[in-house]
Write a structure and sequence with these properties.
Bound molecules: iron/sulfur cluster
Structural class: alpha/beta
Strand content: 5-15%
Radius of gyration: 19 Å
Largest sheet: 7 strands, parallel
Number of domains: 2
Low-confidence stretches: none
Length: 309
């Protein structure tokens, strides 16, 4: 979103959760990764980028799970990371990817105190406001009450929330239902963040079929089609109209099965992807607005074909 971002994923012990749509834990270690190895990774990163380290404005940190899980990314590793990040003299945002369970007052207060970044951001995967889809289908095991409590905590501490919001998260959804659900999730998050005075960013995730995930089999059986890139654009337009900053994930990191993401659809238009990519960087509404009318039509078409089927 206009900032030069150093985005890093550390190799640690795998996430202990087993969400049905996610295969990130397969890329992590089954065993605990010692502190020494993690500090070596931190050193590697700062050495690799030493010549441009002062030019980064954002540091986004994850571990294919929850970077604030102290059993996997130890407090000493975090302290070391934050200390080395002092070399990033233009740092505006320190972004930490985590489940809400790990958002603890003491930890966040410490982070706000120690970092040289202007904004501490925590990025959580709430995905969808539909409790049945989120917990029974996606297997997130994440309750609204917990998220709402953490939103209030973030508001008190002045920490920003970024939330992943899945586009078309339900295996049986049409394009229009998928967009409606994403917007309902955005509205839910916006209402709670406004009440708590918590700054909010939406990270829109066009759902993809993750190769080998438990949900992939279900999606195949019911003939799930990933959302269109046109639907991504339409959703961005609606979120922007609500006055919320939105960033879209356009790369599935080779985790999708063949034709398992928007780029594998017959109606995929790479020009629209480029527009979204540019919008990610600039948040310039004039880039996306001209597409509005055509997009309405393509999205409706898909709903009609499903209805006749
Ligand atoms: S979605 Fe997040 S919490 Fe769930 S398994 Fe994947 S990394 Fe873990």
């Amino acid at each position: 979103m206009g900032l030069k971002d150093l985005c890093v994923s550390f190799y640690t012990q795998k996430c202990q959760h087993a969400c049905s749509f996610c295969i990130l834990p397969t890329r992590s270690s089954r065993l605990p990764v010692p502190l020494k190895s993690i500090t070596r990774q931190i050193d590697w990163m700062f050495n690799r980028y030493k010549d441009e380290i002062e030019t980064f404005q954002q540091l986004s940190v994850g571990n294919e799970g929850s970077i604030l899980d102290e059993k996997r990314f130890y407090p000493d590793a975090m302290n070391y990371l934050v200390k080395r990040a002092q070399a990033m003299t233009r740092l505006k945002v320190l972004s930490l990817e985590t489940r809400p369970e790990y958002l603890k007052k003491r930890l966040l207060e410490e982070m706000v105190r120690k970092t040289n970044a202007d904004i501490v951001d925590t990025t959580v995967g709430f995905e969808t406001q539909d409790d049945r889809i989120r917990n029974a289908i996606l297997g997130k095991n994440m309750q609204r009450s917990l998220l709402e409590e953490k939103i209030r905590l973030l508001g008190r501490l002045g920490v920003r929330l970024t939330s992943y919001v899945m586009l078309k998260p339900g295996p049986l959804m049409t394009e229009e239902e998928g967009i409606r659900e994403a917007l309902a999730t955005v509205d839910y998050l916006q209402a709670h963040c406004q009440r708590a005075h918590t700054a909010l960013v939406i990270y829109l995730s066009p759902t993809y079929i993750a190769r080998g995930s438990p949900l992939a089999g279900v999606m195949r059986r019911v003939g799930y089609r990933p959302p269109k890139i046109q639907s991504v654009l339409k959703t961005i337009i609606e979120i922007t109209r609500r006055g919320i900053a939105v960033y879209t994930g356009l790369w599935c990191e080779n985790l999708a099965e063949d034709k398992g993401d928007f780029s594998g659809r017959d109606d995929y238009d790479p020009r629209i992807r480029n527009v979204v990519k540019e919008f990610n960087k600039t948040q310039d509404f004039s880039l996306v607005e001209p597409y509005k009318e055509n997009i309405e039509e393509t999205v409706r078409d898909d709903a009609r074909s499903k209805a006749s089927h």
